[in-house]
């Protein structure tokens, strides 16, 4: 399949295609994947030198999302390196969870449990996540017991199931963290729950309540603080779009309607008012690609393809295709992003709409805590 990518691009670029826009999008993504595959040796070297960055996991997730065969020499080498790495940061744990779910959640069930355990133990007292925690994680932790009568977050287990419930095994990591790592945790937890793992409701409620408390009066979210405590922490596009998506995820797995949630609607209204594709609202070129990917996630979860008269996907694709280098990468030269591989992975994921929608809530668990609403 890897050797067929140039031929595929040639076919897609022929005139007279029924959908020229989609042709350009797929061709750009395929070209990006080809460039990423040329960088695997450099990524492996970087991963060996720094186990906390997450670059290896992001690469494998992107390639798996685009259908690069797990059996190929390139992928098998990358996956083997990833499975040898225990998560040491929230970002790595979340990216590993997303990748293992994409590859095969049954085959990699032990690795998913390891990621889930890290995320549970790393949650801060206020519901956030920080970059890392001080506690080590067993390579293959055993199957956690289900406590009688405990409230679960996730899909409803059938009567015949013996659900795997991830419970805290370590002391509280810290009092507070940051919103960037908290967003990563939300997407990692979703991957775990959609792979069949369960979490205590209390943990999900704590995470959901953090996003409610930290929403600013203008409807957006910033990087760190609660509401107006820090006047320098202004609302930004990447944090607001990510927070809308995270809120949808937690409300869904708590069995609640997220589409009409006031916090979600206020956040989407902020994105509509501050809409831009050419920059990250509030930060300009900083975290620009992260903003685009978060906007896509929020839009897909809410089933909204437009912000007012703007089609965020069509306009985003047009912007990204215009920024792509001739060799397939998305350079950091004029976008102030350090890692060109991360840029390219993020662009490919956006172009191919990797995010999946959430189905309507299927159950209503125990009544929510009064402060949760």
Q: How would you explain this protein's 3D organization?
A:
The protein has one domain (23-225, 233-372): Glycosyltransferase (Alpha/alpha barrel), CATH 1.50.10.20. The protein contains 14 helices and three strands. It has helices spanning 5-12, 20-38, 40-49, 55-65, 73-83, 90-103, 109-122, 179-194, 201-214, 237-253, 262-273, 288-302, 312-323, 340-351, and strands at residues 152-153, 164-166, 197-200. Strands 1-3-2 form a three-stranded mixed β-sheet. Strand 2 (164-166), helix 8 (179-194) and strand 3 (197-200) form a beta-alpha-beta unit. Helix 6 runs antiparallel to helix 7 (109-122). The longest helix is centred in the first third of the chain and has 19 residues, at 20-38. The termini are far apart.
């Amino acid at each position: 399949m890897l050797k067929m990518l140039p031929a595929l691009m040639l076919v897609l670029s022929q005139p007279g295609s029924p959908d020229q826009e989609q042709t350009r999008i797929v061709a750009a993504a395929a070209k990006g994947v080809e460039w990423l595959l040329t960088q695997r040796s450099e990524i492996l070297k970087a991963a060996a030198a720094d186990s906390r960055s997450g670059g290896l996991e992001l690469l494998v997730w992107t390639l798996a999302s685009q259908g690069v065969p797990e059996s190929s020499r390139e992928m098998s080498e990358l996956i083997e390196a990833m499975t040898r790495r225990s998560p040491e940061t929230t970002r790595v744990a979340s990216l590993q969870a997303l990748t293992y779910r994409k590859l095969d959640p049954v085959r990699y069930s032990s690795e998913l449990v390891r990621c889930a355990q890290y995320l549970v133990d790393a949650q801060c007292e206020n519901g956030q996540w920080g970059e890392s925690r001080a506690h080590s994680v067993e390579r293959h932790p055993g199957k956690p017991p289900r406590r009688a009568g405990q409230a679960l977050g996730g899909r409803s287990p059938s009567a015949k199931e013996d659900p795997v419930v991830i419970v805290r095994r370590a002391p509280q990591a810290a009092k507070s963290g940051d919103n960037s790592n908290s967003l990563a945790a939300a997407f990692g937890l979703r991957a775990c729950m959609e792979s069949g793992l369960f979490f205590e409701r209390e943990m999900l409620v704590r995470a959901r309540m953090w996003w409610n408390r930290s929403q600013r009066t203008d409807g957006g979210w910033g990087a760190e603080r609660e509401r107006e405590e820090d006047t320098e922490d202004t609302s930004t596009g990447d944090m607001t779009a990510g927070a809308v998506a995270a809120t949808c995820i937690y409300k869904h797995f708590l069995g609640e309607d997220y589409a009409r949630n006031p916090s979600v609607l206020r956040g989407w209204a902020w994105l509509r008012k501050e809409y831009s594709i050419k920059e990250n609202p509030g930060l300009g070129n900083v975290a620009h690609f992260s903003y685009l990917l978060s906007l896509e996630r929020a839009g897909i979860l809410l089933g909204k393809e437009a912000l007012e008269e703007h089609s965020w996907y069509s306009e985003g694709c047009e912007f990204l295709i215009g920024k792509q280098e001739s060799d397939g990468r998305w350079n950091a030269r004029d976008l102030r992003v350090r890692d060109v591989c991360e840029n390219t992975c993020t662009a490919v994921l956006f172009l191919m709409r990797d995010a999946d929608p959430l189905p309507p809530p299927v159950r209503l668990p125990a009544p929510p805590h009064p402060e949760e609403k």
